[in-house]
Specification:
By secondary structure, this protein is an all-alpha fold.
């Protein structure tokens, strides 16, 4: 009689073990599906964040380029006004050139030197504007690079977690 209850206990434990194994086997595909969805979600988030960073960089670059173009155009207009002023001055000096040629040459030389100085000044300003603009674009690109790198690092960490959970399921 002693063997009969022990046999029932063994049968009961075997059935419970089989039932747990069956439940675990049924749960594995569900867990794999969740892990697959989580992997896809991580890749979608990475993709979205990278594209956001790329689009932000593009917008900043366009904005900086437009600002630079406006500044250079303003500088160009100043140079054009200076050349127009010089043309008017030269045109008004001709009658005086016949009366006092030495003084006219002296004024023409002074005005030419002033125009050269002003031209060099505008060229320097333009160069500084381009340099500042390029530095701003470089800073924006570096920020975008750091952001993309961080996005990928975070994504790799998440994907490693998912991979580890998937491997645990395979082992089980």
């Amino acid at each position: 009689m002693d063997e009969q209850p022990r046999g029932r206990d063994t049968t009961k434990r075997t059935q419970e073990s089989a039932q747990r194994s069956t439940q675990e086997a049924v749960g594995i595909p569900d867990e794999l599906a969740r892990l697959g969805a989580e992997s896809i979600s991580v890749w979608m988030r990475i993709n979205q964040e990278v594209w956001r960073d790329v689009m932000d960089l593009g917008a900043k670059t366009v904005r900086e380029g437009a600002h630079l173009a406006a500044q250079l155009q303003q500088t160009g207009l100043e140079a054009w006004r200076d050349s127009q002023d010089a043309s008017v001055r030269w045109a008004t000096q001709w009658p005086q050139a016949f009366r006092d040629p030495l003084h006219c040459y002296e004024r023409a030389f002074e005005q030419g030197m002033e125009m050269a100085r002003r031209s060099l000044h505008l060229t320097r300003l333009s160069s500084e504007m381009v340099t500042r603009s390029l530095q701003q674009m470089q800073q924006s690109a570096e920020e975008a690079t750091r952001s993309v790198q961080q996005t990928f690092q975070d994504g790799v960490s998440k994907l490693q977690e998912v991979t580890q959970r998937t491997e645990r399921l395979h082992v089980a």
